[in-house]
Prior knowledge:
- This protein is an alpha/beta fold.
- It has helices spanning about 1-25, 40-45, 80-95, 100-115; strands at about 50-60, 60-70, 70-75, 130, 165-170.
Amino acid sequence: RDYLDQVKxxxxxxxxxxxxxxxVFPDLNFLLNKSNTSLNDIKALMSEDEKIIIYTSxxxxxxxxLISKDDHEIKIIDNSYNSIVDDVNKLRDLLQDPYSQSTSxxxxxxxxxxxxxxxxxxxxxxxxxxxxxDVELSSLPxxxxxxxxxxxxxxxxxxxxxxxxxxxxxx
Length: 171
Protein backbone atom coordinates (compact mmCIF):
# COMPACT_ATOMS: atom_id res chain seq x y z
CA ARG A 1 0.00 0.00 0.00
CA ASP A 2 0.97 3.56 -0.35
CA TYR A 3 1.06 3.87 3.48
CA LEU A 4 4.09 1.64 3.67
CA ASP A 5 5.82 3.67 0.96
CA GLN A 6 5.08 6.81 2.97
CA VAL A 7 6.55 5.23 6.10
CA LYS A 8 9.74 4.34 4.19
CA UNK A 9 9.95 7.89 2.85
CA UNK A 10 9.48 9.33 6.34
CA UNK A 11 12.24 7.09 7.66
CA UNK A 12 14.61 8.30 4.96
CA UNK A 13 13.63 11.91 5.67
CA UNK A 14 14.25 11.38 9.40
CA UNK A 15 17.67 9.90 8.69
CA UNK A 16 18.49 12.86 6.44
CA UNK A 17 17.33 15.30 9.11
CA UNK A 18 19.50 13.56 11.72
CA UNK A 19 22.55 13.85 9.43
CA UNK A 20 21.84 17.52 8.76
CA UNK A 21 21.51 18.33 12.46
CA UNK A 22 24.77 16.51 13.18
CA UNK A 23 26.61 18.37 10.45
CA VAL A 24 25.12 21.87 10.59
CA PHE A 25 23.96 22.15 14.21
CA PRO A 26 26.11 19.81 16.33
CA ASP A 27 24.99 21.59 19.50
CA LEU A 28 21.47 20.30 18.84
CA ASN A 29 22.46 16.62 18.80
CA PHE A 30 20.13 16.04 21.74
CA LEU A 31 17.24 16.40 19.26
CA LEU A 32 18.35 13.42 17.21
CA ASN A 33 16.29 10.31 16.95
CA LYS A 34 18.88 7.81 18.17
CA SER A 35 16.66 4.77 18.41
CA ASN A 36 18.32 1.90 16.64
CA THR A 37 15.93 -0.70 17.96
CA SER A 38 14.75 -2.95 15.18
CA LEU A 39 11.59 -5.01 15.03
CA ASN A 40 13.73 -8.12 15.47
CA ASP A 41 15.25 -6.62 18.64
CA ILE A 42 11.76 -6.13 20.06
CA LYS A 43 10.68 -9.64 19.10
CA ALA A 44 13.75 -11.13 20.77
CA LEU A 45 12.69 -9.56 24.08
CA MET A 46 9.16 -10.96 23.95
CA SER A 47 7.91 -14.19 25.45
CA GLU A 48 5.81 -16.66 23.45
CA ASP A 49 2.57 -15.54 25.10
CA GLU A 50 3.06 -11.79 24.60
CA LYS A 51 1.59 -9.77 21.78
CA ILE A 52 2.03 -6.06 21.18
CA ILE A 53 -0.79 -4.32 19.36
CA ILE A 54 -0.25 -0.75 18.21
CA TYR A 55 -3.24 1.29 17.06
CA THR A 56 -2.96 4.54 15.20
CA SER A 57 -4.77 6.35 12.42
CA UNK A 58 -4.09 7.97 9.10
CA UNK A 59 -6.76 9.88 7.15
CA UNK A 60 -9.69 8.18 8.94
CA UNK A 61 -8.13 4.72 8.48
CA UNK A 62 -7.33 2.58 11.49
CA UNK A 63 -3.85 1.11 11.30
CA UNK A 64 -3.17 -1.96 13.43
CA UNK A 65 0.33 -3.34 13.93
CA LEU A 66 0.51 -6.66 15.75
CA ILE A 67 3.91 -7.92 16.90
CA SER A 68 4.56 -11.35 18.35
CA LYS A 69 7.80 -13.18 19.07
CA ASP A 70 7.74 -14.94 15.70
CA ASP A 71 5.67 -12.72 13.47
CA HIS A 72 4.15 -9.34 12.77
CA GLU A 73 1.21 -8.13 10.77
CA ILE A 74 -0.17 -4.79 9.64
CA LYS A 75 -3.88 -4.30 9.02
CA ILE A 76 -5.46 -1.16 7.63
CA ILE A 77 -9.17 -0.75 8.24
CA ASP A 78 -10.31 1.79 5.67
CA ASN A 79 -12.60 4.72 6.49
CA SER A 80 -13.40 3.55 9.98
CA TYR A 81 -11.43 5.58 12.50
CA ASN A 82 -13.98 8.33 13.25
CA SER A 83 -16.78 5.82 13.81
CA ILE A 84 -14.49 3.78 16.09
CA VAL A 85 -13.72 6.85 18.19
CA ASP A 86 -17.46 7.58 18.40
CA ASP A 87 -18.09 4.01 19.57
CA VAL A 88 -15.31 4.25 22.16
CA ASN A 89 -16.92 7.37 23.61
CA LYS A 90 -20.35 5.73 23.53
CA LEU A 91 -19.08 2.61 25.29
CA ARG A 92 -17.35 4.65 28.00
CA ASP A 93 -20.61 6.48 28.67
CA LEU A 94 -22.63 3.24 28.67
CA LEU A 95 -20.26 1.48 31.06
CA GLN A 96 -20.88 4.24 33.58
CA ASP A 97 -24.64 3.67 33.40
CA PRO A 98 -25.69 0.49 35.25
CA TYR A 99 -28.97 0.33 33.29
CA SER A 100 -27.39 0.25 29.83
CA GLN A 101 -26.31 -3.38 29.76
CA SER A 102 -27.86 -4.56 26.50
CA THR A 103 -26.78 -1.45 24.62
CA SER A 104 -23.23 -1.65 26.00
CA UNK A 105 -23.02 -5.29 24.86
CA UNK A 106 -23.79 -4.36 21.26
CA UNK A 107 -21.34 -1.43 21.24
CA UNK A 108 -18.65 -3.62 22.88
CA UNK A 109 -19.20 -6.30 20.21
CA UNK A 110 -19.13 -3.72 17.41
CA UNK A 111 -15.82 -2.33 18.67
CA UNK A 112 -14.39 -5.82 18.99
CA UNK A 113 -15.37 -6.54 15.38
CA UNK A 114 -13.62 -3.39 14.19
CA UNK A 115 -10.40 -3.40 16.20
CA UNK A 116 -9.58 -6.91 17.43
CA UNK A 117 -11.35 -9.32 15.10
CA UNK A 118 -9.06 -8.42 12.13
CA UNK A 119 -6.06 -9.79 14.08
CA UNK A 120 -7.77 -12.34 16.34
CA UNK A 121 -6.33 -15.24 14.34
CA UNK A 122 -2.91 -14.28 15.80
CA UNK A 123 -4.10 -14.27 19.43
CA UNK A 124 -4.25 -17.18 21.85
CA UNK A 125 -6.35 -17.50 24.98
CA UNK A 126 -4.51 -16.11 28.02
CA UNK A 127 -2.03 -14.14 25.88
CA UNK A 128 -0.67 -11.02 27.48
CA UNK A 129 -1.73 -8.31 25.07
CA UNK A 130 0.19 -5.07 25.34
CA UNK A 131 -1.87 -2.26 23.84
CA UNK A 132 -0.26 0.92 22.56
CA UNK A 133 -2.90 3.42 21.46
CA ASP A 134 -3.09 6.87 20.09
CA VAL A 135 -4.88 9.52 22.17
CA GLU A 136 -8.41 8.90 20.88
CA LEU A 137 -8.38 5.18 21.69
CA SER A 138 -6.49 5.45 24.96
CA SER A 139 -9.71 5.61 26.99
CA LEU A 140 -10.97 2.27 25.66
CA PRO A 141 -10.90 -0.53 28.24
CA UNK A 142 -10.23 -3.46 25.87
CA UNK A 143 -11.11 -5.91 28.62
CA UNK A 144 -14.73 -4.69 28.43
CA UNK A 145 -15.14 -5.81 24.81
CA UNK A 146 -16.99 -9.00 23.90
CA UNK A 147 -16.38 -11.36 20.98
CA UNK A 148 -19.86 -12.89 20.82
CA UNK A 149 -23.37 -11.48 20.66
CA UNK A 150 -24.71 -11.19 24.20
CA UNK A 151 -28.18 -10.79 25.58
CA UNK A 152 -29.53 -10.84 29.07
CA UNK A 153 -28.96 -8.85 32.17
CA UNK A 154 -26.46 -10.81 34.23
CA UNK A 155 -23.61 -8.39 33.66
CA UNK A 156 -20.99 -10.22 35.71
CA UNK A 157 -21.45 -13.59 33.98
CA UNK A 158 -20.92 -12.32 30.45
CA UNK A 159 -17.85 -13.32 28.42
CA UNK A 160 -15.86 -10.12 28.52
CA UNK A 161 -12.40 -10.26 26.93
CA UNK A 162 -11.09 -9.75 30.46
CA UNK A 163 -11.76 -13.46 30.93
CA UNK A 164 -9.93 -14.41 27.73
CA UNK A 165 -6.79 -12.24 27.60
CA UNK A 166 -4.50 -10.36 29.95
CA UNK A 167 -4.30 -6.71 28.90
CA UNK A 168 -1.56 -4.20 29.64
CA UNK A 169 -1.43 -0.65 28.33
CA UNK A 170 1.45 1.62 27.32
CA UNK A 171 1.11 5.29 26.44
